[in-house]
Structure formats: C-alpha cells, structure tokens
C-alpha cells in the first residue's frame, strides 16, 4: 500500500490513500484493544505490515501530501518511528505510544521468564519516546488548549501521556513479577493514581467524552485491585496519604464523563463502583474483626 514515494502521487490520489490508511489504523487499534482485554495475541502480524501512520486532518482535508513513515515494530527502536519525519501529528505519535504500551503484555503472554535486559530495553524505549516527543505534544505546552478547533489535537496529547504512564506501569509489572506483587500494587496505587490525576488536571472536562474511548481503560482506579495484604500496608498510618482517596475520586469522575457518550465508559464506571463498594465492605469487616 505504501511502497511508492508520496511525492510522486497527485493530491487526490494521496488523499484517497490516506483514507485507506486511516481505516487500516482503526482496524489495527481494534485488534490491539481486543488483544489487551482478552490477554491473547493480536490477529494482525506486525512483522508483515507496512502502512504509513496517518497525518493531520488539516493535511488530509486540504489534499496536501505529507510524508509519513510506517510503524517500526522493533521494541527498542519503535520510538524512532517519527524521528526526522514530516509527519508530527499527535494521532501518529499516539499510535506509537499505544504500540509501546502493548509490548510488555505481548512478552508476558509468551509464558517465558523475562530477563532483566529484556525489560530494561522496553523501559529505555519508553523513556526515549517520552524524551523524543516534540514540544507541541508535551504536557503542558504553550500550544495546548481546548476549544472547538483544537480539542481533537489536545485530546490526543492527553491520551499520549496516559499511554506513556500505562506503558511504564506494564514494564514494571513485567520486571517485578509475582515475587514483588505487594510492593508493585502499593506503588501502582500511589504513583499511578497521582500521575493520572496530574495529567487529568490539564484535561478540559467538557471534552473528555470526545477522547478515543479505549483510553478509558487506563483510567480505572487502581486501588480496588490491591490484594488484602497490600491494602493492610497501604492503609497503615505511615503510608496513607490523605490525598490518595481524592485521586480515586478524580479518576471516577473522569470515567463518568466518558460514560456520557461511550458505553465502554459506562461499563468501566460500573465495574469500578462495584470494586470500590466491595473494598469499603472489606474495610468495615476488617475493622469489626479488629475491635
């Protein structure tokens, strides 16, 4: 599909090809989402795909050809996909972040022990990606704002940073494994909740529901996932931060905004509310047994 030099295409032909690319990447995202949710391999063989990442809406609508690149699937080099490329659109960068986020899951599905070197390669790739982000995609940036003409771009920027955070958490879980489940859970609850809240502080509430719906899966409050032993430590006087519960409130309210438009948001919100109800019941039972 993308075996020709874009400069050789006439604008109308390029715009037609761009429409096909966008359709392809939507299918790819659905495949990736299904794989993540089911913890099963993707249907699309990444080693055999070569489709340029989508460019900006403005370039497409105006039929103005912009050179792009296909996704590099080498885990250690995926972050270089858009380096030096004319295409610096937020959605293209988001797709790369989405790919990086799924790599630890792919490795975990293999069922083989993960070496420190292997997990470090992924951690370094995610760090390089974050460092390589162009200035207009950083959070916050002078150009970051929400209005009718910019909300799509700004939503992709928020989604990029949520994916970076999720990718880092997945790599840490991959490296720690079951041996350090307790420490990993407590860290995930405290650090990830705080970092997600920091990102959401930049998110204009009226535009949350217009974001890509799969991003909502990364917003489910992490506290209810803690094991009983982890909750005991997390709830101790030394570890409990008064702000931690408010971080959970922020995530729940963000999910509620997503649920205004997306059924997926409604499902995630109901599940989160159920988890929290069970968690609160468990706390009351523990307090009763201890008194």
Task: Write structural notes for this entry.
The protein starts with 10 loop residues before the first helix and ends with a helix. Helix content is 57%, strand content 0%. Helix 1 (11-38) runs parallel beside helix 3, helix 5 packs antiparallel against helix 6 (181-200) and helix 6 (181-200) crosses helix 8. With 291 residues, the chain is mainly alpha-helical. The chain contains nine helices and no strands. Mean pLDDT is 83; it is low at 178-186, 223-231 and 233-238. It holds the Pfam family Fungal_trans.
Which short descriptors sum up this protein?
mainly alpha, nucleus
Which percent bin holds the helix content?
A: 55-70%
- Uncertain residue segments: 178-186, 223-231, 233-238
**Series of H and E elements:** HHHHHHHHH
- Structural class of the secondary structure composition? mainly alpha
Radius of gyration: 21 Å
GO cellular component, one term: nucleus
Subcellular location: Nucleus
Domain Xylanolytic transcriptional activator regulatory: 7-67
Protein name: Xylanolytic transcriptional activator regulatory domain-containing protein
Give the structure's gist in a few sentences.
This protein has nine helices and no strands. It has helices at residues 11-38, 57-61, 90-109, 116-132, 151-176, 181-200, 228-234, 244-259, 263-290. The N and C termini lie far apart (69 Å).
Topology:
Blueprint: H1 11-38, H2 57-61, H3 90-109, H4 116-132, H5 151-176, H6 181-200, H7 228-234, H8 244-259, H9 263-290
Helix pairs in contact: 1-3, 3-4, 3-5, 4-5, 5-6, 6-7, 6-8, 8-9
